[in-house]
Amino acid sequence: MIGLIVIALVVTLLLKGYYPQAILFMGGVVLLTCTAIFGWGDLLNAKQTTNFIGFDIFKVFSTGFSSRIAGLGLTLMAIGGFSRYMEHVGASAALFSVFEKPLKLIKSPYVLLGASFLVSQIMVIFVPSHAGLALLLMVTLYPILIRSGVSPMSALGVIGCAQFVDVGPGSGNAILAARTAGVDVSEYFVYYQLPLFVGVVIILTFVHMFVQRWWDKREGWVFDPNNIQTLAGTKNTEQDKKVPKIYAILPIIPLF
Predict the structure, then answer these.
(1) What is the pLDDT of residues 183-193, one digit of tens each?
(2) Which DSSP string do the residues of the chain spell out, in sequence order?
């Protein structure tokens, strides 16, 4: 019940526009404090504890922050910096210019939307980081989808759903599940995750195509080719035309 209350308060404050990091931090503090007060578990083992609840909570946070900043944090900063630089040099525009003619053969942008979701699900297996994959998709798939007539919200809907399930031998949750079940993580992925994953992905591909189309119609989305640069968040058209097409290789290097 306490967990549900904290989650409800966190969601409410986030929807009201409060600073997300501070709200999530406070929610964590409340849950850790309740854990210590009601004796639901030890925050730290006997060797690590400071024997004072306030210091123990602080130590849990400091330990967690240091490990995540050194590992996942640096990875996300590297990917974020790479994505920003690709936008700055016009590599995303170059990527679209290479695929522009083949993409014109696809009459409906929602077919392209479904295909993009399939591509993102292949990438999920190799890029287990939710935020990292989202940044890579924003610099590769997003500009292509926007320039092909897909609304920004539909494009973001697909990118946001890319990591709808933790799957693959690189996923921390999959590794933990395999270890708990006493099987090799590769065997767990191929025989237990993959059959279910493939079926769900096929269903969600069509769900995305029809649901995003329905929402775009409801919100009155009309594709305006003259407004592409603003929607895609890139430079003006004249500058994009001067970008060498060889730059199209740059955004997809991390994918390989």
Answers:
(1) 998 899 999 99
(2) -HHHHHHHHHHHHHHTT--HHHHHHHHHHHHHHHHHHTTSS-SS-TTT--SSHHHHHHHHHHHHHHHHIIIIIHHHHHHHHHHHHHHHHTHHHHHHHHHHHHHHT---HHHHHHHHHHHHHHHHHH---HHHHHHHHHHHHHHHHHHTT--HHHHHHHHHTTTSS--STT-HHHHHHHHHHTS-HHHHIIIIIHHHHHHHHHHHHHHHHHHHHHHHHHTT----GGGHHHHHT---HHHHHTS-GGGGHHHHTTT-
